[in-house]
Each structure stands twice: as C-alpha cells, then as structure tokens.
Sequence to fold (139 residues):
Amino acid sequence: MRYWLFKSEPDAWSWDDQVAKGDAGEEWDGVRNYQARNMMREMAAGDRGFFYHSQTEKAVVGIVEVIAEAHPDSTADDPKWDCVDVKAVRPFARPVTLAEIKAEPRLSEMALVRRPRLSVQPVTEEEWRIVCAMGETEP
Fold:
C-alpha cells in the first residue's frame, strides 16, 4: 500500500462532500497538472490518502481510500487527463494544520512542506504515521 495527500478547496469539494458520497466514492477530477496526474496513474486500489483542506483551513481533516485506479477524467475535454476514484474512510479526530506539519522536524522533507502547491502528493509511510499520530487518528 502507498500513501498520498489529496488537496481540495473546501468551498469546491469538502470533506463533508466526500463523506456524503459514501462507499461509492467520487472521482478526484479536475487535476490539470502533469506531475499530479502521473502520481494518480501510480495509485492502486486500496492505497490511502490524506484529505487536505487547502486555502483557508490548511489542514489534514480525513483519510480516503483509492477505490478505482486511473481512468479518463470525466470533466476533461482532452483524453490526456486521468483521475482516480476515492471514498472517505474516517475523519481525523483532530485536524492537523500545515503550521503544525511545518513545525514538526520529522516532516521537513514532506512534499506538503517542500512542494506545497501540488494538488496530489506522495506521502511516505513514516510521514503517514506521524501525521496520523498528530491528528490522534488510527493510521
């Protein structure tokens, strides 16, 4: 299993929106960055990801699971754009903010710290466990 981070503006697609989709999940669509698209092409069903509210909140708020591997993005006019489907697994007991992540020395190499603008990012297993512990949530 691999780990990822999915960023979304809560006014466009929030954790509550994701939870409302239930086990059917939803496409992680609209990504128009080659690097992020290529990461989604690497994902396998069963991989886990952090659901991150960007913009105002800037915090990891939940855990999602990849339930469908890369396929054409239904919102794209160009077939070069792919997406995966994800479903909500569980909320974080306590959101973990970007400021807290940046303040944790063990997370200094995390993509969220080093390449914060990327909408889909890899997360190492160690980073996964640290952030889950910070959020008082089972990994």
About this structure: The longest strand covers residues 82-97.
